[in-house]
Structure formats: structure tokens, C-alpha cells
Design a protein that fits this description.
This protein is α/β, with parallel strands linked by helices. Helix content is 49%, strand content 8%. Helix 19 packs across helix 20. The longest helix is centred in the middle third of the chain and has 44 residues. Keywords: Membrane, Signal, Transmembrane, Transmembrane helix.
């Protein structure tokens, strides 16, 4: 069986996307760049000769406007942004770095490093308003006088001056070497964060790529070549290009007037009073008393228009058109949102952008930008991720509306997620209490309650069946355009209830709807089929779902999420338990083993295929549960040693698949290959530590969710009739009176051993998922919220027997 599984998953590796670096063919870049004044990198060894027949590339300029969203773009208020979007491609941008919201300094730092980073120091402006702690640190403008802080790490001012002088020799014409004083304090929040930050990676990669001169370039064309450098204008841009010592090699007051092939310009941030200190210029990031967002957005657009005119005026004759990129590199308040990204120029047709890391048209993350820009410049990057373009014939306003609808969906989900989770927690607690009441002989036996107990039990079965349809309703809600309603929150609520009601009705359709087993089996089977079909077609229902993943959070963008994995595990094994029981009663002895093997391996393939589910820990959990189920069905006695061997075998299979995925190009790898790369580079332990911290954070922010897991274990143990195996105690003792209230009053559900085995397999899968999955505490907690309703609904079939 393991050999068959390896073959299936290995075949799935061939379904992965091609390297993302090929997604920008014909873009606004070329290797044919060389210095014209004998400055940086003029040695012959750095020159590469290619016969492309293309004109020298035009300058690429990145304008950063933290806080900008697609919703801010309007043909009347922001004509320059609207024009860029009309001619180029756009996307919503996830700017999450470390923490729930991203200050501009953190956004700029992450942009330049191509990795999540947080910028310090801690804000000192809290003295102005002690009750308002949601403040961003003030940006530190670079200095060019060679001075340095004692905190900067230099042993002496002389060494610092010598270092600056050395960098000064590398500076391009029109720029100078500058230094961000106190840069150690800026980097301090990243120490021990679990993320590796390569400060200034973007600028260093462009510089190290050196000069490239096309064969046959004549003197006229040579005058149009650009230098392999990155010019930084403004404090944010300085944060992006500074090296680990805070040195900015090419700092300037006008990045557009230089001959650097890449210019980075800080146009200021769009903020609100409680978050930033002064958006839009003078780079002080302090908010004036008369702050108005629309006014500031219009001001940002006006300043952008001025700079775009300079780009056109400074363009070199004979060179290709410049490439313009505008990015909202950070949030503008304590409320995180998706921000704007626009790219216009050669190679960017009107449409949407994505990357190999998101696999979602119209969605990028901030760590994609540096490798994507390097791909545009045809410079190798460590991650080999490029921009994938999806052209469209839609008019610009329609494209804006579509992106705004997706961003609104993410924001609404983010705002309502806590309420939805707490509601599910409360429902679970109510069901848990109802479970205890139904099983206690003394409560329902009083005052004639026993005569009504079976009716109460069946009523609870109907309620549980309805509750069991809600989690999948949260996924199916994504099929409806609720985010375009006037009140998206109400639209989300109605969509979840409506789709859950449809599932509930489907579970009642004959022939399966005539029995409780048929109803639960239909619901579990529907969950299984819907999730599998969604994963095979791009996991669109997982994204922007109350039980999936949110692009604003950015922990995952495709594949099977933790909560989806929990529902998948429970639905799989409850469905298999019911099907095996049905087959056995009809004498299909061979099918009792064949069906679980076929369905189980298909489920493992769907979850583990790097192009579909790409769920490392969840796939091990499913495989372990499947092996337990098959062992029980085969009457193999499960010992601790055999359980350990099952776990090790499952892990070995997935490590092998991760190795095969790792062999693919970096831009085409899934979470499997990324994890194996972390093992190779020695970052695995750091990542595991970060994941454990995420589990603790979940418990801190939602302790009610953490309590669900032990309560679920108690409920499952009761229903699995383990209380019957308690040692008999004296009936008159306190312990005896407690135990005897429950003994013998358990539902007859698990007299069916096949169904019993299905529940054991589900419990095994959830337990393994707890240990091996990122933020794994959500796996058993979410699984319990499906498992207990299924269990109560199934027990309603024996309501009369349970209360005789």
C-alpha cells in the first residue's frame, strides 16, 4: 500500500506549475545594461554577451505609498493611478510581516529583503496620547556625514568613516553613500523572530549581477545603457536598500535623475492619526490635525504624476519604455487590509498579477515583490519567483471593482472570524452538555422525563445534523457574491446559513435520507467530495473562508488549511466507517478492505499532492488514521510499537515526497519542498519553534477553542464505551455512585464495530494533526466541532433503546 501511495504522490508532482520565472517573458527588462562612466562593476569578467536584438532596457522605478488600496483608485480623484492601472496589471497586495498590522518601516524593510521583517525601534510618540498604543516607529532618515551611533555596532568613528568611504567608491553618479544611524535598533525586533532576514537583498542582487552588453551594440545604443545599481530616494527607500550595517550605497534626492537601472522612491504614507506620524511627504510621518484620507490619497496621486513626468523626461533615447511599479508597502491603521500593487510598462498587459506563492490571480504578497522585480530585471534571485500575468479584456473600472470585491471579502472575513469562532465554541459547549444530559440516567428519569427522553434525543439529532452542515456551509459561501452586497457582513451570514441549509436538505433526500446513518453518511460524503473537488481545481473555497485561510493573514494561499484538514479527516473516516458497515451487512467481504484502501489512498493523494492539498502534517495524519482503520478492520492488534511504526512509516513517505518536490525549481515548490529545503539549510528547528509559538498564540487569543479539545476527548471516550471497562467499585461508595449513573446507559451506536473503528481512525488523525500540523491546536478543535454533531446525530437512531 505504501508503494502505491508513493507512486500516486510522485505522479502528482508532475502536475505542479512551471517555474514562475518564466511568467514574465518579454517584460520590461534585459540583461543588456552597462555603466557608461566607468563607475561600478566595469571589469570584463562581469560582462555577459547575448544576441537578443532588443533595445537597452528602460529604467524600472518602484514608488512606495504605504496604506494605498485598490479602492482608493478613482478616475476623478486619482487620474495618474487610474491611468497606470488602465495600461498595466494590478493585484491586491498582502503586506503582513511580523504582527497583525504592518507599519511602513516594516513594509519597506520586508520589501528590500524579500522576507518578513519588522522594523524598530519602539515608538516614542506614546507620550502624546498614553491611551493610544497603536503607533508606528518614526522613520530614521539616512545621514551622509559619516557619523555613527555607538549602538550601530562600529568599533570607532574612524572605522565607520573608512567603511562609508569604501561604499562611496561604489556609488553611482548623482548618488552618495548614506547611513541609517542606530540601525541595530531597527533590526532588533527580528532577533529570535523565527524569520531569516537578508537586509538589502534586492539592491545587492542587482549590483552583483554586474553589467551586460548585447553583442553588436553600437555607440548610440551604448549611451542608453544603465548602471547595475539601485538608487534610493526617501527614508522608506533607504530602509529597503540598506545592508545589515545600515549603509545605503546609492542614496539621492532624485532617484529618477540617476542612471541606475532600478530606482526606489518613497512617496510617503497614507495614514490616520492613531497610527502614523505624518503621511505623504516631508517624510516625517506625522499626521496634521486636519487629516482627511481622500485628500491625502489625491495628494499622493498628484506627487506621483509629477514624478511620472520626470521619468518620461529622463528616459534615454533608444532605450525601451520605463517600467513603473506602485505598491502600498504597509498598512495605514491598526486594521490590516490588502493593499494596492500596480505594474505598467513593457511586458505588463492590462489584467491581474499573481505569483507561484499565492497561485491566485489578483493576489501577491510583499515577499514576492523583490524576487519578482529581479525577474523583471532578468537577475537571478534566491527564491526564483516571478510575476504571473493574467490578461483580460475587461475595462479598467471592472477590474478595479473585481479586486475591491476580493479585498472586501478578505476584510469582512477578518472582521467576523472571531465572532464565528466564538459562536461555534458556544454551540459545541451546548452539545457537550446535552450529550451529558442524555447519558445520565438520573436527570431524564426524574418527573416522567424518561417518557420524553427519546423525543428529546431525536430532536437533538436533528439539531446536530444542522450544526454539522454549518462548517461546510462556511466554505460553500465563497460561491456566492456576498462581498458585493451593501452590507457584506450580512451577506456573509446569509450565505453561510443558506449553503448550510442546502446541504442539510440534500442529506434528507431518499434513499439515504430515510435513516440517521444515511443522513450523516450523505453529509460526510458531501464534505469529502466538495473539499476534494475544490483542492483539485485550485482551492478557491479554502481562500477567504471563515474556516479556511485569509489573504490578509497570509499564512497560506492555496492547498488544504488546518480547519479544512480537520473536516476532511473526520468526514473521511466517518464516511468509511458507515460504508464499511453497510458493505459488511450485505456480505461484501472483499469490499470491506478494498473500498477503504481505494478511498483512503485517494484522500491521501488529494491532501498530499503538492499541486492540490499540499498539506504536509495533514497528509501524515490521514495516512496514520487510514493505517489504524485498516489494521482494525483486518483484526490486527494495535500495540504501542505498531502505532509507533505506523507513525514513522507515514512520516517517511511524506519526507520522501518532500524531497522529490524539493528537486523542482524553487519557484515551483510547494510547502513540501520548502520544508525539505529548510531541513537542508538548517532552518527547520527555527521554523518549528515559530510554529509552536503560533500554537501558544492561538490558545492565548482564543482559550475557548483550546478547551474544546479536552472536552471532545471526554465526549468521545464516553461514546466509545470505555466507561464500561472501568473496574467495578462498591456500589455504595461515592465513586461507585458516580460511575453507575453512566454505566449501561450508553447509546447502542458502537455495538457496530466498523463504525467504532471509523471514530477511532478519526480520533487518531486529529491527534496526529495536533502534533505535526502548523498551528495544530486548530485541527482537533475544529474536528471535534464536526465529530460530536455527527456522533449525536448517529446516536439518535438508537434513541428508543437508550432510554428504556
Amino acid at each position: 500500500m505504501l508503494g502505491l501511495l508513493v507512486g500516486l504522490l510522485t505522479a502528482g508532482l508532475g502536475l505542479g506549475p512551471a517555474s514562475a520565472s518564466a511568467s514574465t517573458d518579454g517584460s520590461a527588462s534585459t540583461d543588456s545594461l552597462a555603466p557608461t562612466d566607468g563607475s561600478a562593476n566595469t571589469n570584463a569578467s562581469s560582462a555577459q554577451y547575448t544576441d537578443t536584438g532588443r533595445p537597452p532596457a528602460g529604467q524600472t522605478v518602484v514608488f512606495g505609498i504605504p496604506g494605498l488600496t485598490i479602492d482608493d483608485i478613482d478616475p476623478e480623484r486619482t487620474p495618474n493611478l487610474f491611468h497606470l492601472l488602465s495600461e498595466g496589471a494590478a493585484a491586491n497586495l498582502n503586506v503582513r510581516t511580523i504582527g497583525s498590522a504592518t507599519c511602513p518601516a516594516s513594509g519597506w524593510l520586508s520589501f528590500g529583503a524579500g522576507a518578513r521583517a519588522q522594523a524598530g525601534p519602539s515608538p516614542i510618540a506614546e507620550d502624546a496620547d498614553p491611551d493610544d498604543s497603536a503607533r508606528c516607529p518614526t522613520m530614521i532618515a539616512p545621514t551622509t556625514d559619516g557619523s555613527v551611533d555607538a549602538e550601530d555596532g562600529a568599533t570607532s568613528a574612524k572605522e565607520t568613516a573608512d567603511s562609508d568611504e569604501a561604499h562611496g567608491d561604489e556609488s553611482a553618479a548623482g548618488t552618495t553613500t548614506a547611513r541609517i544611524e542606530g540601525f541595530d535598533a531597527v533590526k532588533e525586533p527580528n532577533i529570535g523572530s523565527g524569520y531569516s532576514v537578508d537586509y538589502g537583498m534586492l539592491a545587492r542582487a542587482v549590483t552583483e549581477a554586474g553589467s551586460a552588453v548585447p553583442a553588436g551594440t553600437d555607440a548610440t545604443d551604448a549611451d542608453s545603457l544603465l548602471e547595475p545599481c539601485v538608487a534610493a530616494e526617501g527614508p522608506g527607500a533607504a530602509y529597503a536598500v540598506a545592508d545589515e550595517d545600515g549603509v545605503v550605497t546609492n542614496f539621492t534626492d532624485d532617484a529618477l535623475a540617476t542612471d541606475c537601472r532600478l530606482g526606489v522612491v518613497d512617496l510617503g504614507a497614507i495614514g490616520i492619526r492613531s497610527w502614523l506620524f505624518d503621511p505623504i511627504p516631508n517624510y516625517s510621518y506625522t499626521v496634521p490635525p486636519n487629516y482627511d484620507r481622500e485628500t491625502r490619497v489625491a495628494e499622493a496621486d498628484r506627487r506621483l504624476g509629477v514624478r511620472l513626468q520626470e521619468v518620461r523626461e529622463n528616459a534615454k533615447d533608444g532605450a525601451a519604455d520605463p517600467t513603473i511599479i506602485v505598491a502600498g508597502l504597509g498598512d495605514s491603521s491598526g486594521l490590516p487590509q490588502l493593499r494596492a500593487f500596480i505594474a505598467s510598462g513593457p511586458g505588463f498587459e492590462p489584467g491581474s498579477l499573481s505569483s507561484a506563492t499565492t497561485r491566485t490571480p489578483g493576489l501577491l504578497q510583499i515577499t514576492d515583490l523583490a524576487p519578482g522585480i529581479l525577474d523583471v530585471l532578468e537577475v537571478d534571485s534566491p527564491r526564483a519567483v516571478g510575476f504571473d500575468s493574467t490578461p483580460t479584456d475587461d475595462d479598467p473600472q471592472q477590474r478595479i471593482d473585481d479586486l475591491v470585491a476580493e479585498a472586501q471579502k478578505s476584510t469582512t472575513i477578518h472582521q467576523n472570524l472571531s465572532t464565528f469562532s466564538i459562536t461555534l465554541d458556544i454551540i459545541f459547549y451546548i452539545l457537550f452538555i446535552a450529550c451529558a444530559v442524555l447519558l445520565n440516567r438520573s436527570i431524564l428519569g426524574r418527573r416522567g422525563g424518561a417518557t420524553r427522553a427519546s423525543h428529546v434525543h431525536r430532536f437533538l439529532g436533528w439539531v446536530s445534523l444542522g450544526v454539522g452542515s454549518v462548517p461546510m456551509g462556511a466554505f460553500l459561501a465563497g460561491l456566492l457574491p456576498w462581498s458585493r452586497m451593501a452590507d457584506p457582513g450580512l451577506g456573509l451570514f446569509l450565505s453561510v446559513i443558506g449553503t448550510a441549509a442546502v446541504l442539510f436538505v440534500l442529506a434528507l433526500i431518499p434513499p439515504w435520507g430515510r435513516t440517521w446513518r444515511g443522513r450523516v453518511g450523505a453529509l460526510a460524503g458531501a464534505n469529502l467530495l466538495i473539499l476534494a473537488a475544490d483542492l483539485a481545481t485550485g482551492s478557491h473555497l479554502q481562500a477567504n473562508s471563515l474556516l479556511g485561510y485569509n489573504p490578509i493573514v497570509g499564512g497560506r494561499y492555496y492547498g488544504l488549511g488546518n480547519q479544512g484538514a480537520a473536516i476532511f479527516i473526520v468526514s473521511l473516516f466517518i464516511f468509511l466507517g458507515l460504508v464499511v458497515s453497510w458493505l459488511r451487512t450485505r456480505g461484501h467481504r472483499k469490499a470491506v478492505i478494498i473500498v477503504p484502501v481505494v478511498v483512503g489512498l485517494a484522500a491521501v493523494f488529494v491532501s498530499g499532492n503538492p499541486s492540490w492539498g499540499a498539506k504536509f502534517g495533514g497528509t501524515i495524519a490521514i495516512l496514520a488514521g487510514l493505517m489504524v482503520l485498516l489494521a482494525l478492520l483486518s483484526k490486527i492488534r494495535l500495540t504501542l510499537l505498531r502505532l509507533a511504526l505506523i507513525g514513522l512509516s507515514s512520516l517517511a513517505v511524506l519526507i520522501g515526497i518532500a524531497f522529490l518536490d524539493w528537486l523542482r525549481p524553487a519557484g515551483a515548490r510547494s510547502h513540501f519542498g520548502t520544508f525539505f529545503d529548510q531541513i537542508v539549510t538548517g532552518e527547520a528547528l527555527q521554523v518549528v519553534g515559530r510554529k509552536l509559538g503560533a500554537n501558544l498564540h492561538i490558545i492565548q487569543v482564543n482559550p475557548a477553542l483550546a478547551i474544546v479539545t479536552p472536552l471532545a476527548a471526554i465526549a468521545i471516550l464516553i461514546f466509545l464505551r470505555y466507561l464500561l471497562h472501568f473496574p467495578r467499585v462498591h456500589a455504595g461508595s461515592r465513586t461507585g455512585r458516580l460511575v453507575n449513573k453512566w454505566r449501561g446507559r450508553l447509546p447502542q451506536l458502537f455495538t457496530d464495530s466498523d463504525l467504532h473503528y471509523g471514530f477511532l481512525a478519526a480520533a487518531t488523525g486529529l491527534g496526529v494533526g495536533l502534533v505535526l500540523t502548523d498551528s495544530g491546536v486548530a485541527v482537533p478543535s475544529t474536528g471535534a466541532m464536526v465529530l460530536l454533531p455527527f456522533l449525536l446525530a448517529l446516536s439518535a437512531e438508537h434513541a428508543e433503546e437508550a432510554h428504556r
